[in-house]
Design a protein that fits this description.
The chain is of the alpha+beta class. It has one domain. It has a three-stranded antiparallel β-sheet with strand order 1-3-2, covered by helices on one side. α1 crosses α3. The longest helix is centred in the middle third of the chain and has 17 residues. It starts with 8 loop residues before the first helix and ends in a 14-residue tail after the last strand.
Length: about 90
């Protein structure tokens, strides 16, 4: 479980855009956290990305009640496959 915790939505925004927002589709299929602010900002920013350009993925969110509290889960489903080498490099 993600143990990162923030004190404000601004701090949550800074954390989310510094990594999870761009990594969720290219490195990971999802993100989970016990901090509602991180979950809120991630869902908002993923949805915003889909509305300012051609939608690239479906955004999903859910939660689990655990003995430690609420675990928020956010994941995406691509609408089209990613290019094999989107960074422009040739495979080795």
């Amino acid at each position: 479980m993600e143990t990162m915790s923030v004190d404000s939505l601004h701090e949550a925004f800074e954390w989310i855009i510094s990594g999870p927002l761009m990594e969720i589709r290219y490195r990971y299929s999802g993100y989970q956290t016990s901090d509602w602010m991180l979950a809120h900002v991630l869902v908002f920013e993923l949805t915003r990305l889909n509305t300012i350009s051609v939608p690239q993925f479906l955004v999903h969110a859910n939660y689990d009640l655990t003995s430690e509290g609420i675990l928020y889960k956010i994941w995406v489903t691509p609408l089209s496959p990613l290019p094999a080498h989107s960074d422009g490099e040739k495979p080795e």
